Amino acid sequence: MDLRVDASAVLSFFFSTVSSLWPLWIISMVTISKRRSQISSWQILWIVLVISWLGARFLPGDGLSIIPEPTNSILFWLVALAAAVFFASRLLRHPMRDHILNPEFDPKADIDHEGFEKYVAEIFRLSGHKVQIHGRQRDHGIDLIIHLKNGEKWVTQCKQWSGAVGEPAVRDLFGAMHHAKADRAALITTGSFTSQARTWAKGKPIELIDGQRLKKISAKISRERHKKTRSL
Length: 232
Known about the structure:
The chain is of the alpha/beta class. It has helices at 7-20, 22-33, 39-58, 71-93, 97-100, 113-126, 167-179, 195-201, 211-231, and strands at residues 130-133, 144-147, 153-159, 164-165, 184-189, 192-193, 206-209. The chain contains nine helices and seven strands; from the N terminus they run H-H-H-H-H-H-E-E-E-E-H-E-E-H-E-H. The chain has a five-stranded mixed beta sheet, with helices on both faces. Strands 4-6 form a two-stranded parallel ribbon.
């Protein structure tokens, strides 16, 4: 008796079944991830489904199916196109949001200075505030202008440094705050601040946020976002 297994037939059955049952995988993902809390998991799922669909076409065979062809393929690619548009819009609209929600992300090493500005801006946006990025048109060293929910106007400077930010930088930002007629200022760095800088800022409307505090803020936002998506 020949007990050999036809590998191509097994792969054909696998690919055909996975690609044909795609509605069940999507429903399962919605149930597990509570809508779209884990965008990377959705991307992995779609990659597997597309590979399976292509594999089923190169290795035609019989598999389980819940929607007859060609309706199954038409619906699959329509949904896949909609998913691709959704993921692309998420990445274009919130390029830093996934970084903030990723505890392994290092804003000091994984992005450049311009990316760090966008990273800080997204942190404020996720906290419910409105942000204006100055970019190359900086005014007196101001990188961001924040309009808080309580009506206050903040000016912010972002420094992607490894070392300590000194008193002169704090003084300059304090002057820029008055020039912009802002209520408060925030100096945010991936590094630290000298004792002289902290002493000079004490009692003034200036927030000094070092790398450790920035990580804590990011982690808090991540926890709140995940908690919110789980409750939906």
